[in-house]
Amino acid sequence: MQRHRLDGPPAAIVTRVRELVGRERTLTFTALTARLSDCRWINLLRALNHLEQQHVIKLTPLPWDYEIRLMTNGPSATKGE
User: Fold this and answer.
1) What's the distance, CA 12 to chain centroid?
2) pTM of the full predicted structure?
3) CATH assignment, 10-70
4) This protein's superkingdom (predicted)?
5) What pLDDT digit, counting tens, does each position of 16-74 carry?
6) How many angstroms separate the CA atoms of 55 and 52, rounded?
7) Rounded to the nearest 10 degrees, how much is the dihedral formed by the CA atoms of 12, 14, 17, 23?
8) Rounded to whole angstroms, how far apart are CA atoms 44 and 32?
9) Where do the structural domains in the chain lie, given as residue ranges?
């Protein structure tokens, strides 16, 4: 049986990460990798780096993980917040 891989181009992964963080608001890298288990870690890290540079998310190091938090004052924030 062939395993079907969904880890497509980085733009698709960025979109998936953005949507997940938008729904959850805060989650850890461990939780992200569990939810998007079909994606390689390197692609998830690249997507997180891209979103952090765009001020969409904030990454905070934890003792054994990273916290991913949606930024409410970045370009993805809705007006009036």
Assistant:
1) 11
2) 0.77
3) 1.10.10.10
4) Bacteria
5) 999 999 999 999 999 999 999 999 999 999 999 999 999 999 999 999 999 999 998 75
6) 5
7) -90
8) 8
9) 10-70
